[in-house]
Every structure is written in C-alpha cells, then in structure tokens.
Amino acid sequence: MNPPADTTRLGHLLGPHGVQGGVKVYVLGDAAQLLRLPRVWVEGRGWLRVRRAEALAPGAALHLAGVTTREGAEALRGAKVYAADADLPALEEGRYYYHELRGLPVLGAGGEGLGEVRDVLDTGHQDLLVVSLPGGEGFLPLQAPYVVVQPGEGGRPAAIHLTGDAPEGLLADERAESAPDADPGAPEGG
Predict the structure, then answer these.
(1) Per-domain residue ranges of the chain
(2) pLDDT tens digits for 24-67?
(3) CATH number of the domain at 98-176, please?
(4) Cα distance from N-terminal residue to C-terminal residue, the chain
C-alpha cells in the first residue's frame, strides 16, 4: 500500500509508549509538526485519526484511533508515517517542508536552468535533492553556502539556486560521471 499523493513522510513508528496503545515516533525534522495533526497515514493501515499527541525527547508519541493496547502499538513498529500536506502546520519564513521543494527549478550561479527537483532524501546529517537533468538524474546536497532556497510569494520556496561559490561538479549527471574521461590508452602527464 503506497502513501496517497500530496502527503509528506514524517518518520516511522518505533514501538509502544505505555500500555494503552500509544506509539513512539521517530520524527524526520521537527517533532512539533506532529502535535496538532488531526490524522496520519500509517503504512499498512491507512488513515488513522490522532486521538492525542505528546512531545517526547527526541520525537513524539501518538495515540491513534483503533490502537488501544500495547500489542496493537507493537504491531505498528517500523511502519512509515505520513501527513496530508494540507494538514501540516504553517512554518515561519525561511523554513519549508520537503514537499515544497519538489518540482522547483534548479538554477546555476548565472540564473541558467539546470534541472528540476524530483525528490528530497533525508540522509541523516545532510538532505539531498534528487534533480532531473537533461541527461539523466543527479544528486545535490542541500548545503549552505553553496545551495540557496530562493523564496517566492509569501516566503514559500520558489527555486533552488547554486551560488558562485559552489564547487564545480556539485550537481553532476550520473551518466556523465560514469562516462570515461579520455582515451584510456593515452599516456599520463603527456
């Protein structure tokens, strides 16, 4: 069962919290985004109403409709948790959700179009943008000061911009990277 369109992954369920069906959540990002959600989509279960949410360091605990025992919460261990994009709380200016970056143009230092953000990967210490390029697909670390998310109307993201300080090859087509550089039989240092 795949998550519905227009949802954003919030994390995954870790296991029971208490004996009345609470379940701990490993949260990707800020745990506060979970605390006021009316519902979540749980992998393997579908949409579940949030009866109560509690902040826990470093994540949160959710009490979901239909999950009333420790065993019920245990059965959800490892399931991914999503929220409807429309249910997510508004963020302060300069902060954004991953779904707001998908579909944005990626611009070079001179403003030239390089590609489009297809997805965002949370790799732990650094987020990676998956970028569709004319020759294939590339990965772009979402890292200051080389990559800037340009705001548009209302402060929401409008484009991804590589700065003039970005190292050459920061965004490279995977096919170009695997292509041979030169004649393998040519002598080095010529």
Answers:
(1) 7-87, 98-176
(2) 999 887 888 889 999 999 999 999 999 999 999 888 999 999 99
(3) 2.30.30.240
(4) 58
